[in-house]
Amino acid sequence: MKVSIKNSDQNQKLLYLLIENRIYDGYVYNDSFEMTSGKFINNYRLVGTLNISGRYDVKFGYKFPLNKLVLIATPLAITTALVLIFTEYWELSPIIFILIGIKFSLFKYHERKELNRFETEFLKLYKTQELKYEF
């Protein structure tokens, strides 16, 4: 799922409002923004970076310590599982691959859920601000 937002003054104000209303915690700059959910403690973040066409590409990922850990632990687990296939402990390999699959599917589930929540909250604010500007 790809989410992008046009870079305009109104959209930057809406991103600020998401933070002011405590829906998200984070920061907004002219060329990027980073937000984490303000409702509960989690290890995920939304990062928007400005691309060449003047739109924010919104991506989902892990927060700082966890993102480095995942980058190291996933290839290490795959390598370990492949090595275990050729040793006498080959029974552990399917378990490791199943755990990696569960981690990946949970990440995709949280990504879809958080991007949908971000879109919903952003559009809700957009509609309320549109009504304010109309009068």
Oligomer class: single chain
Q: What strand order characterises the main sheet?
A: 1-5-4-3-2
Quantity of strands, as a count: 5
N- to C-terminal separation? 35 Å
Gross morphology: elongated
Task: Bin the helical content.
Answer: 55-70%
Q: Averaged pLDDT, please? A: 83
Largest sheet composition: 5 strands, antiparallel
Structural class, judged by helices and strands? alpha+beta
The topology string of helices and strands comes to: EHEEEEHH
Low-confidence stretches: none
Radius of gyration: 20 Å
Instruction: Please count the helical segments.
Output: 3
Domain unit count: 1
Percent of residues in β-strands: 15-25%
Could you explain how this protein is built, in words?
The protein is α+β, with helices and mostly antiparallel strands. The chain has one domain (3-134). 57% of the residues lie in helices and 22% in strands. It is built from 3 helices and 5 strands, in the order βαββββαα. It has helices spanning 9-20, 64-85, 92-134; strands at residues 3-6, 24-28, 32-37, 44-50, 55-62. Helix 1 packs across helix 3 (92-134). The model has no long low-confidence stretch (mean pLDDT 83).
